[in-house]
Design goal:
It is globular, with a radius of gyration of 27 Å. It has 12 helices and 15 strands. Strand 6, helix 7 and strand 7 form a beta-alpha-beta unit. The protein folds into 2 domains: 125 residues, 3-Layer(aba) Sandwich (Rossmann fold), CATH 3.40.50; 196 residues, Response regulator (Rossmann fold), CATH 3.40.50.2300. Helix 6 packs parallel to helix 7, helix 6 runs antiparallel to helix 11 and helix 8 crosses helix 9. By secondary structure, it is an alpha/beta fold. The strands form 3 sheets. The chain has a 7-stranded mixed sheet, sandwiched between helices. 43% of the residues lie in helices and 18% in strands.
């Protein structure tokens, strides 16, 4: 009987060992996977306007949302976050509390406003579309939108009859100046007699001021084409109202008008995918400034209006191919509109300067006060 009892004990011990060998690892894996799922990677986006509004805000949101879904990452969004009144730092703290380990600052002044706070979160990788502030955990990101501006300018130069192209612009900072300059150089490429007339609104979003400036550019300056660097499409609406051609920005508009020549667009999904991939590999803040451009299909013009002739399209396509092949827009002799030489014949303006320090406008650009 004692012998049989020992056999039973042995069988019980054997079963217990087998349980530990087979079942416990399964429980561990299940628990690990569940814990991993609960610790899903989180990325934050802070942006100035409403993510449902077409233009800058919606295009960024759609782009980063698609990229996060592709990588299985949870996106935390804080929109309608106004600049320079403490809302951005508050949004950063909120995102950090909610587990974001990478945060995109998608308006120009955020990084300046939050620069001290950014340094207090060394475990978070930050990215900003402004390059005027630097930190070890902060990288400036942007697409070479100015390449599409240059192509749009070339189209405007061919299309204008009055030789005056109006440009409603938010703020005279590096980002906006860079775009205006590239646009003007494109205009001059196809029509050296044409000029670009700029009016500043002082805000990224200000419908009344944008509308007033767009109307003044038409009535006072004589512009027969309008474009803009604003978060929303008010300028396009005014151009349509007055029967003036226009080039939109950062959105494909719901318009069948022949006056809607094209839109300057960015593949933000492609760009955010590139940035998130760098973050996941631990390479997010390896570089100070990070750009991708037309050679990657990141910037482009939308389909053209029927009013754009095949000859015009062929010229724009030719200039686009030059850019893809490596042509630098900001190269060769360039003067500013005060007569100062900004680039020598055998020089090119560096990427760092283009991203950080363009406080001038090229010859051929006028400012209407």
């Amino acid at each position: 009987m004692k012998y049989l009892s020992n056999i039973k004990n042995f069988k019980f011990l054997t079963a217990a060992v087998m349980f530990l060998i087979i079942v416990l690892p399964v429980i561990f894996v299940f628990h690990f996977n569940r814990e991993f799922a609960e610790r899903k990677e989180k990325i934050g986006l802070i942006i100035l306007g409403d993510i449902k509004t077409p233009g800058w805000n919606e295009s960024h949101y759609r782009g980063i949302k698609a990229a996060c879904e592709n990588f299985g990452i949870e996106l935390l969004v804080r929109d309608k976050v106004r600049e320079n009144i403490g809302e951005c730092p508050a949004a950063i703290k909120d995102l950090a509390r909610n587990g974001a380990r990478m945060i995109f600052l998608a308006s120009y002044s955020y990084s300046t406003e939050a620069q001290d706070l950014i340094k207090r979160y060394p475990q978070i990788a930050f990215a900003t579309n402004s390059a005027e502030v630097h930190a070890r955990n902060l990288t400036a990101y942007f697409v070479r939108m100015y390449q599409a501006r240059y192509l749009a300018g070339a189209l405007a130069g061919m299309k204008t009859k009055s030789n005056v192209i109006g440009y409603v612009a938010a703020l005279p900072n590096t980002e906006v100046n860079r775009g205006i300059n590239a646009f003007a150089l494109g205009v001059q490429k196809t029509n050296p007699q044409a000029k670009v007339v700029v009016m500043w609104t002082g805000y990224w979003q200000d419908e009344k001021t944008e509308a007033k400036h767009a109307e003044r550019l038409i009535k006072e300056a004589g512009a027969d084409i309008l474009t803009y660097h604003q978060d929303e499409e008010t300028t396009a609406q005014v151009a349509e109202k007055f029967g003036v051609d226009f080039i939109a920005y950062n959105a494909i508009l719901n318009s069948n008008s022949e006056h809607y020549l094209t839109s300057i667009l960015c593949r933000w999904d492609l760009y955010y995918s590139d940035m998130i991939q760098r973050y996941l590999k631990g390479e997010m803040n390896y570089v100070k400034n990070h750009w991708i451009g037309i050679e990657r299909g990141a910037v482009m013009l939308s389909n053209f209006s029927p009013a754009v002739t095949p000859k015009m399209i062929a010229k724009v396509d030719s200039l686009k191919q030059e850019l893809i092949n490596g042509k630098l827009i900001f190269s060769g002799k360039i003067y500013d509109n005060a007569g100062n030489l900004r680039c020598e014949e055998d020089e090119a303006i560096s990427d760092d300067t283009l991203l950080e320090n363009i406080n001038w406008l090229v010859r051929g650009v006028e400012v209407l006060e």
